[in-house]
Structures are given as C-alpha cells and as structure tokens.
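Input record (Table S2, row 619):
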Amino acid sequence: MDISEEFYNCKSDYTLHTNKKIKTTRKLQELAAELMTVNDKTNALKLYNRSIAVSPVNAIDLPIAFANKSAVLLEMKNYDACMNNINLALKHPMCPVWLVSALLERKVKCLILMSRWSENTAKKLFKMIKRLPFTNQEKNLLKIRLNQYLLHLYNTIKNTEEISKDNAEGFIQNYKRYKKKFGLSENNVLCISNNIEIVQNKTYGRHIITKNNINSGELLLKEKAIISCLYLNEVYDYCSCCQIRTHVLIPCNQCTRALFCSKYCLIRAMELYHHIECPLMEYFAEIEPEDQHIQYITRLICFLSNQGKKLTELIEKWRKTKDEEKNYTLDNNIYVMPRNFQTLFLSFDKYAYMPLQFAHSQSRYTQLVEKLKEKTDFFSHLSTDVNDHYFQYLVTSLLIDLEAYFKCNSFCISDIMRSNDDSVAVIRKNVGLACFREANFFNHSCVPNAAYCFENGDTISIYSLQKIRPGEQIFICYLNTYYEVDKSKRDLMKNYSFQCRCVACLGNWPPFEELQSLYDVRFCECEHHNALSRRISISGCRYCRFKRDVAISLKNIREKLISEQSFHQIAENLKLEVAEAMDLFQNLEGIEIFLIKEYVELYRLYCRCIEIPKNINTK
Ligand SMILES: C[S@@+](CC[C@H](N)C(=O)[O-])C[C@H]1O[C@@H](n2cnc3c(N)ncnc32)[C@H](O)[C@@H]1O
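Output record (S-adenosylmethionine complex):
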C-alpha cells in the first residue's frame, strides 16, 4: 500500500496549520538522532513520530523526519514501514535534492531486501526522477548518483549473503495476511462460535452459555471495538482510531495530536468523532491522567449522537421514558448496559440511581460541555437554548451517567510486546479503553474458564481455557491478576461496582495446589508466568504454550533432518509436518510477529520440500 499517496491526498482536505512549532520539530529530531547514537531505536522512532506530528505541513523538516524514520526502520528490518516513509519523504514538495538522492539509495536497498527489486523497478525509479520538480541539471546529477549506487550495490551483493530475502518475505506475508483479515472490515464481529448463546437470569443478568461441548483453547469470539480511545502517553506509538502499534503514523493536519495508521482510519475517525474531537485535542492533552477517559466519553457521545437520534430527543427520553429496558438492573449492580446499544440513553433512570461515586465528575463535565459549546458545532442542530442552565445540567448529568456505565463495561486494551532481552517473557501494557457489543456479555469469575486478549489493536479475542460442557456459563476474569481473593474483591468493587458472585467467591475457592489440574492452558513453566508468584497473566500463558508448541515441532523437524540421509526421501512427509507447524502461527495472529525467525526457518524448509527454487518470489 502506498501510504504517501494517501497522506498527501488527505492533506489537501484540510487547511494548512500555520502556527506550528518548527523549533520543537527540530529539537525533537536532534534528540532522536542522539538516541540513535546509543542505538535506542524504539525511542528514537517515538521522537521522530512526535516531530512529524508537530512539524508544519509545508516545512522542509517534515520530509527530513520521514527520511530519518525510514533509516531507523531499515535498521530494524521493518521494510514495509521503511518504504512507506521513504515514499512520504519523496513525495513531499519541499524534499531537497540531496535528500532525494539519499532516499533513492535507501529505496533500492529496501526493495532488494524485500525481494522486490527488478529491472522494471529500476526503470521506474529513473522515470520518477524525470518527474521531480528539479532543474535538468539536478535531475542528471540524481541519475548519475543512482547509477553509481546501483553499481556499488551490485559489486558488494554479488558474492555475499548480506541481503537475506527470506527474512523479509516472512514478515511481509504475515503483515499482509493480517491487514487483509482485519484491516478494512466494517463488520465489528469478525468471528463468533456457533457453540455459544446469550441467556439471562437474575444473578448474572445476561450471560453467555455453551450450547455444545467446547474444547480448551477454542476461539469463542473475535470482535472489533465499537469505540476505542488511547491513553494520552501512547499517542505517538499507536493509531488513534484502531489502536494498532505501528511506526507509520499520519497526523491529522489540523490538531496534529491524533495520529492514524492509514487514510482509512483517519477518515473513519473523522466521520465518527474526530470532527468534534479535533478542536478539543489541546484541552484533552492538558487534563489529568486520571481523567483521561473524558476523551473516550466524548468519542462515545459523538458516536451515539451519530446513530440517528438527536441529542435533545435523547435527553428528553432519558428523563421521561418508561422504556422496557429502563428497569433492567441486577441485584447487586446498577450499571449494566441495555442489550440494545442504541437504546442506552433510554435505560438511564437518574432519579432511582444517582451514581454517587461519580458525582465528583460534575466540574469536569461542566468544563467539557463548555468546550463543546465554545469550540465545536456539537450542539448546533439543537433548537434548545444551549446556555439554559437546566439544559446544561441535564447534559452534564448525562455525561456522568455515561461515565458510570462505561467504566463498568469497558475493557482496557493491552498490547503484548516481546521483552528486550529476547526471552520468552512478554511485556503487557494497557494502552487504551474500548467497548464492545458482544464481548460485553461475558461475566466475571475469579476462576474463569475463558480468557480474553487483544490482538491487532482494539480487536478482542476470547478463548476457552478448559473443556466446557453444554449449558455451563462462560466466564472471563476482568482483572489482570487473580487468586488474590481480597484484592480481587476490592478491585471489582472499585472498578466495576459489583460484588462478585462467582463460584469461588461464594465459598468454593479450590485449593491453590489444585488449580494447575483445572486448566489446560493457564499455567506454564516460564519465569514470567510462574504460578508461584500468584500473579498470572492469563492470556500471556497462551503465548507460552504456543511458543512451546512451536519449539517442540521445530525440534522434531530438525532431528528428522539430521537423522535422515537423503532429504528427497523424507521431503514428502516432512512437507506435511512443516505445514502443520506453520499452521500454529495462523491461529495466533497477535503474537506471531515475535516468532518471525522460527516462521522464516519453516518457510524456507517448506520451499525446499516442495522444490521451489529459493530465488523465486512467491508473493
Ligand atoms: C460487562 S457486564 C456483563 C454482562 C451483564 N451480566 C449484563 O447483563 O449486562 C458486567 C456486569 O455483569 C455483572 N457481573 C459480572 N460478573 C459477575 C459476577 N461474578 N457476580 C455478580 N455480577 C456479575 C455485574 O453487574 C457487572 O457490572
């Protein structure tokens, strides 16, 4: 995908922002360059992203930042992202000749590493030089330099293994499959098991039960968030719309504080909420970290008021209606979402249940309503006088209620990263908030039989952790840690306002030593998830199990290769074994990217088994 096209196409949609800080842009780039001297690529990238975000669109600093970023990405072997950044720099109208020359060289190198270099690409590059907005003399100079560089490359690569195609091939395949699967789908529920259904009772409210036998490790649901929002300190690493971690971030040219991974995300965000949120970004950036969810709530009200209902109508109904869902509460919790997301407003019963613990939000939301009035046209279609005190009071209370409801019904999006020491351990960090239509109906248990994890940004996946019989309820654990009874109880009350009635809390906590036998997946021997520490990250262990499976398969395959004398004799059988091992990667998209070396090794072997000559481009 050529992101540069998209970036400069969308640029024309927005007015140029003049009041941006060139000094800050340069300072950030200097700092990033310093970080590169100590090889801290990840943080350098972060700073380059920030400098791109604050740079004026028509300044020379922007293509320089893209170019610098592409150099870092090339070192990190992230060729796709590197190409995208090279293209962004090249297509910038202020890109100077000296930079173009360096960029062309980098582009050639990257194309070779990606196995996409051919005579045709060379011709295209020379043609591209023709179209650049330089004098003929400058263009000739560029052509000569490019020719010299190609010659130099040819001489160095000819006899060395410097460029390894396979590494790049594996990565690209994964990345493309990834994008195709989730990237452009508007349908939020990507996959749901036929074996589950939603039912209702007084203890648990709506809950999910099984219709048929479910095996451990089965995927039950994969769903994209309806609305999600990043925490403030993550905005330079993740897409503001889909929350995917990426090095190619396109800033919104007006606020420059929201960055998107593609034009698709930018437009989607614009349609859903960013048109309202954009002028408020400065205000959001200044609010205290504990109030970060205000941006999330703003996105939600934009989303809800986009759903065809006018705000005044909603507020009126919210006060008066006798909607059937209005009295839908559970014995021990009042903040339960109505089944139909769009009738959410109708279910509020302000007089019966004033969410007291959220009363302190009053001043925050009064301020938000002020900002919405002042800087946006959010209330412009209303016939009501927006300065009327009663109206303001109603909107503020509505926002407070929304906060109460969504705090109890949202998930923290977590990202899994490989730790720096390259061990099995993974780092998980919470990067934002998200709400879902279906995943919302899984209840909590302190000894759950299913677990959720986030894959590909704000896409949640729910897997079973053990065999579940027909009619049994499926529970996930809302907390990151479990088996700390008192702490769990406290956290559930504090964060979700309910008293847990799971089988364990009702008095049946299984002895800790027996837990191991209850689960197929949850415990593993790795240091990070050591059961003895009693702080177990549930979905993390799936990773470890998977890592072990891959290691075992690889070991078997390697042993076979050593013991057999003729490769051709075993190729046919080995092919199947290798294909099965490769399949392991297909099941767990979110983490396969960390196992790229293993995948490439298998891929090479597979090519040998089916006798694809190594130099053929299989994409
Ligand atoms: C995300 S919703 C789950 C769906 C919910 N049962 C419903 O009907 O909308 C979370 C709410 O379900 C209820 N809940 C979930 N797990 C529970 C448990 N173990 N014990 C009691 N109530 C629970 C609480 O009211 C909680 O706020």
